UniProtKB/TrEMBL annotation:
It comes from Chitinophaga barathri. Transmembrane segments: none annotated. This is DUF1080 domain-containing protein. Gene3D superfamilies: Exo-inulinase, domain 1 (2.60.120.560). Keywords: Signal. InterPro entries: AL/BT2_dom. Residues 1-21 form the signal peptide.
């Protein structure tokens, strides 16, 4: 009963917030459709700003992630960060997986990507740090084997969240989305309320909600210890598109800044 009540309260809060946003907020593009001049690149083994192998590129009003200029993948996980951090916002984008997975990448990266948020500033990451301290809305596609593989999941490099009223230290938590097969466009949305409620939406359906994102836990290596204060709530951070071995396209990336619109009371 307590679990059911908690979920109902989360849903009610989200609906209220979204109603306020529609009345007072406005959508702004994060991607201009022409270039990535408003974005920072950080790729493992490379300094911030080095777009190794032209990993992130623009074509036909899309941000594309490609590996045709790579040799061995060598765990060169990458992220493309928008230039400024956000705290309270509604993010929308569309993604589609394309082409073949890069075969020297880890096998778990097949048809796997995501968008990181509440991320540390990429300029605070040492060259050999593999993942940013952040929360991830993970994107997956079906493997063609008939088994469910939901998208819009939560993963947590160097972080934890509160899920269903309790601190949850699992690295990834599956959403309730259906499985999307093949090279189709999927619409993903995030409603982020600082260090409070976070909602994942896939193709119009709410598929996951949780709260209190905070620093803590593993799955991030060779970071600057000054950046990892375990237990610290994450109320803001950078938004980043992920590269981890699977070609993917992103388009129609826009944001509604809710700062000053929603009630910040927890």
């Amino acid at each position: 009963m307590i679990k059911k009540l908690w979920c109902c309260l989360l849903a009610a809060t989200t609906l209220s917030t979204y109603a306020q946003a529609q009345e007072k907020g406005k959508w702004e593009p994060l991607f201009n459709g022409k270039d990535i001049s408003n974005w920072f690149v950080k790729i493992h083994h490379h300094p911030t700003g080095d777009n190794y192998g032209n990993t992130f590129r623009v074509k036909d009003s899309m941000i594309q992630v490609r590996y045709d200029q790579y040799g061995d993948f060598n765990d060169q996980f990458g992220h493309l960060y928008f230039k400024q951090p956000y705290s309270y916002y509604h993010l929308q984008l569309e993604y589609r997986f394309v082409g073949e997975w890069y075969k020297s990448a880890p096998s778990y990266t097949i048809l796997n990507s995501g968008v990181m948020f509440h991320s540390q500033d990429p300029r605070t990451m040492p060259m050999e740090q593999d993942w940013p301290i952040s929360i991830e809305m993970q994107f997956l596609a079906g493997l063609g084997d008939g088994k469910p593989r939901p998208t819009g999941n939560m993963c947590s490099p160097g972080t934890h969240i509160v899920y269903q009223g309790k601190l949850d230290t699992r690295h990834c938590i599956n959403s309730t989305s259906k499985t999307y097969e093949g090279e189709q466009w999927v619409k993903a949305e995030l409603i982020v309320l600082g260090d409070s409620l976070i909602t994942h939406i896939i193709n119009g359906d709410t598929v996951l909600q949780y709260s209190k994102p905070q620093i803590g836990g593993p799955v991030v290596n060779r970071y600057d210890p000054a950046q990892k204060t375990d237990g610290k709530l994450l109320s803001s951070g950078f938004i980043a598109l992920q590269s981890e071995g699977q070609p993917i396209d992103f388009r129609n990336i826009r944001i509604m800044n809710l700062e000053g619109i929603v009630n910040r009371k927890k």
